[in-house]
Amino acid sequence: MKTIIVANWKMNPASFREAKKLFEATKKMAERASGVSIIVAPPVLFLRGLAAEYRGRKISFAAQNTHFELRGGFTGEISLPQVKDAGASHVIIGHSERRAMGESNEDTRKKVAAALSSKLIPILCVGETVRVKGGEHFTMIKEQLRVALLELTPAHASRVIIAYEPAWAIGGESSISPQEMQTIAIFISKTMVDMHGKIGHRVKILYGASIGEQNAAAMMKEGRVAGLIVGHVSIDAKRFGALLQSLA
Ligand code: PGA
Asked: What is the distance of C-alpha 31 from the center of its chain?
């Protein structure tokens, strides 16, 4: 199975001209890389422009967030049908930076259900904001999964991607250890099986937070994950290229 690499550009870059340049570089590196499937999540404003020009098969597109309602009076919001129409096949849900702005577990539940019914693949982010001794993060992850996936049907279970992203580790240079990720991945799988039966095994698990060319390969080798979410390194074409190379 191909390694999934999500390039989460967050609120970067500032102009469409720069976004096109970054995408051109990403595209070249994607073509050279083997065994990876790249999902670029640009600012939603740039989504259509980038997706419309792309003819390859290595890259697909994600929205970084959407509303759960499909239409109506929600000034300033973007809908799932709109991002799908713009070329997205995936949508990130419940990123810690959105949770910090007020997104609740209940919101993620509505968004996951709406994404699946709109035939978009949800990338549900879970993880704790701070790490305290005593394993409370397991309780938090379990609750985030329980609420967000409450309406998951067996038919949909294999379409959901779950990303473990410890918020406290985002934006730096050192991730949690692959061994620790392995433990968390087993915990997520077990929680999914407890909640949804055998089908829970099929859910793909990603890791995100401070992944770069220095630690991506080790995380893929020992972390028991199907792929990675890459933030700040994905907007640095040189480093992102080195990261893809390191996985070859
Ligand atoms: P980072 O961000 O790679 O900059 O830590 C990851 C993310 O927030 O998805």
From this structure: 21
Does residue 95 have an active-site annotation? yes
- pLDDT computed for residue 170 by the predictor: 95
Dist CA 238 CA 180 (whole Å):
28
CA distances to 23, 119, 129, 242 from 19, rounded to whole Å, are 6, 26, 30, 19
Domain boundaries, the chain: 3-247
Please give the pLDDT value at position 247: 96
- Active-site annotation holds for 103: no
Report CA(231)–ligand 1 centroid distance (Å). 4
pLDDT at 218: 97
Q: pTM for the complete prediction?
A: 0.97
| Low-confidence residues of the chain: pLDDT under 50 | none
Return d(Cα 109, Cα 146) in angstroms, integer.
9
Give the model's pLDDT for residue 134: 80
From residue 145, give the alpha-carbon distance in Å to each of 1, 13, 79, 111, 126.
24, 32, 23, 13, 7
In 10 A of CB 181, how many CB atoms? 22
Token duo for residue 28: 């070249």
Tell me which of 3.40.605.10, 3.40.50.10890, 3.20.20.100, 3.20.20.70 is the CATH number of domain 3-247: 3.20.20.70
* Closest residue to atom 1 of ligand 1, CA basis: 231
